[in-house]
Amino acid sequence: MHRLRAFGHDLLRTPDDPGEHQRDPFRWGAYVMAPWCNRIATGPTAVGERVVDLTSNFADGSAIHGQVYAAPWQEGADGSCSIAAGGDGWPWPYRCSVRPSVADATLSVELSLTNLAAGPMPAGLGLHPWFRRPLDVRANADTVIPSNLDPAVAVIPAAGRWDLHALRTLPDDLDATWLAPADPAVELRWPELGVRATMRQRSSSGSCIVIASPASLDAAAVEPQTHAPQGLRRYLDGEAGGMTSIGPGESIRLTVEVAFEEA
Fold this sequence. Notes:
Layout: E1 5-6, E2 9-10, H1 20-23, E3 30-33, E4 39-40, E5 43-47, E6 50-54, E7 63-64, E8 74-75, E9 81-86, E10 93-103, E11 106-115, E12 121-123, E13 126-132, E14 136-139, E15 143-145, E16 156-157, E17 168-169, E18 175-179, E19 186-190, E20 195-203, E21 208-212, E22 219-225, H2 231-237, E23 244-246, E24 251-262
Antiparallel strand pairs: 1-2, 3-13, 4-7, 5-6, 8-9, 9-10, 10-11, 11-24, 12-23, 13-22, 14-17, 14-19, 15-16, 15-18, 18-21, 19-20, 20-24, 21-22
């Protein structure tokens, strides 16, 4: 997604040249994450009778944000877009679709991921918008994984700098995951623009919110996802927050609704 405008204000970090999305796909607009979200390990990993063997696509050496964020999608007559991928380092073929729609001042984004393989596939879906700062955020969740970069970090109560129970300015350099958010999952406010929003998410799988606020960037990511970081390892170890297994022809779905109002 290149642009999101509400009440005359651009709310996404949007490049002047849309080609920048291909040159630097991770830092602009809003993109779909599938068939996994956030970071998973590179190199061979046995999953049943198949082997996941991914190369790094990020500076920290991880395989991040799936495979479809910068690939060509096909437009459908119903306003949706879809892509068929996989069968490579991700050994299961799959189809992912996205359908955005707007009603009044509410944006809805419907996402789905379908397993096209003959056996079960671990699956994950997410949306990665970069919202312009200054930005105030409330995350409606009581527990947090305080670092998405540390694969062994423990879940802790959402306290201290990770306490977002009340709407407040995001601290710099957060990169964390809030687990099992209540409804609504997130509240947003752009204090200089006089705009606020409520984000809701519905999932046939799990539910979490990743927030990243790098001090070096004029935007913050607020990402609804179906699983926590290191979702493949969590799936294999039977941990909470892992990816979801779907059988041949089965799908997982994630719907994100963002309702805007003038503050």
